[in-house]
Amino acid sequence: MSTAAHVLLALLAAGPMHGYDLKKAHDQRLPQAKPIAFGQVYGTLGRLERDGLVEKRGQSREGGPDRTEFAITDTGREKLRTWLETIETPAPYISSTLLAKVVVALLVDGAGQARDYLTAQRRAHTARLRELTAVKTDPASSPGDVIAADYAIAHLDADLRWLRTTLERVADLHREVRS
Amino acid sequence: MTLLQARGLVKSYGPTPALRGVDLEVAEGEILAVTGPSGCGKSTLLHCLSGILRPDAGEVLYGGQRLDTRSEADRSRLRRTDFGVLFQFGQLVPELTAAENVALPLLLAGQGRREARAAALTWLERLDVADVADARPGEMSGGQQQRCAAARALVTEPRVLFADEPTGALDALAGERLLACLTRTAHERHTSIVLITHDASVAAYADREITLRDGAVDPTGLGADIAPAPTGGRR
Ligand SMILES: Nc1ncnc2c1ncn2[C@@H]1O[C@H](COP(=O)(O)OP(=O)(O)OP(=O)(O)O)[C@@H](O)[C@H]1O
Ligand SMILES: [Mg+2]
After folding, report:
1. ipTM of the complex
2. What is the pTM of this model?
């Protein structure tokens, strides 16, 4: 089951909601995330209902999906608890587009190309880091904004540390190749 | 408006070159981050800019006036009145309380005791350490000491704050609080800050970032072309 499905379940744990309100609540709670599409909300609710994790509640006469309220079931609560209690495996495979590009650049064009890529990528990462830091220092930011920005900053920071070290290593490689 | 400027700064320690021709400008109210690998000359640059060290060649201009050619006494007076300095480890006077430490620069500048204490308490409050105002450094945590040192560096309302790894000894949240306070001070009071760090997430608080490499500004590093963050209400 997807993370989004669990987030919807968690929102319903606070009380029954219409699909429309769920979408709004999702985007509000995860302000820096990609907004969830209505289609995805209804699709997910359909699957959750099929699996007995949510149920329809107080359907009004007009019918229609946006008139239907959904509530979490006991099974749904149990499922949510299990999900929260399950530890995520820390990065089982080392796979990242950044890493792949450096490896490929070294393979194809040698250290010069890798260095140019690393320098440009570092700029882009730094620019994003600055944007997110501005979100954090903005007094108008909500705690949700700040927590999400912290999360992204920590990851960008790790990438940047790796970019910098790799840049040094590649510069050494470059020197070796040329001498 | 440019407040502080370096042109072709060169500095060696005996045979060891530390700076090999550094040019930079700091505008009024601007936070400039200086990053770079260990030993690239960051601290030496800060000492030259703040007049603690004299460069072997090149010049430092403060408010358009030569700084490096002034007498030792002149430069140290300027450091008391116009500059604030903050290092990685607070360097508080161990015998004095936090409030006394922070009030010290004002007392040295000839301010009355009561005023000095009031200003000290205000700054301790701004840095979230008012609760340890009457504690001595030995009775405070490292993070509290560091924030007291920041209060002491800012209490004279300097026009330039020189900060060398100011968050190096702090955990993430304490570092964040200190940086938030420094950026607020810069933007509200137009204090310029030269912020030395090797941490990208600390440099991200600055308006601009330059990278030193082997004693010179790295042209392939993050230079003036990195614009200030477009979002947020920092100004
Ligand atoms: N007092 C000194 N006597 C002799 N050499 C020195 C002195 N201070 C610094 N150096 C040398 O000058 C160079 C630059 O040192 P500096 O302290 O400015 O680097 P830094 O960028 O601040 O490094 P770090 O990130 O480790 O603090 C280094 O090679 C260092 O060994
Ligand atoms: Mg240093």
Report:
1. 0.73
2. 0.79
